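Exercise 3.2. Students should predict the tertiary structure of the chain below and write it as structure tokens, then compare their answer with the key that follows.

Predict this chain's 3D structure.
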Amino acid sequence: QVQLVESGGGSVQPGGSLRLSCAASGFSSSRYWMYWVRQAPGKGLEWVSRINSGGQITQYVDSVKGRFTISRDNAKKTLYLQMNSLKSEDTAVYYCAKDCTPIGVGVTCDYSGQGTQVTVSS
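Answer key:
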């Protein structure tokens, strides 16, 4: 079955950096677009970034452009999210996901991991 396991979250001060990882198993991850989505306290699920199967095409929500970088290593079946210049508004649980569909201003995904907490606070 599809398994997505995120790691790398933590607590950082504003301006700091974190690198999230997501290990995929149970499916041919190299054939799929992969996503990072997040849910801030009291808010719905928000699409953050996505990357195509080969890693050549990347897209970001406007609020993270220039600060976050999504990448993947298909040989290792691992998805990454490098987050720099973190802001307090980036505080959320971050999920690795596949088969995501926009719904209004939010997103729904058929598969996601258990999530990893990112807290940005001074």
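Discussion points: Residues 17 and 84 are 4 Å apart (CA to CA). The longest strand covers residues 92-103.
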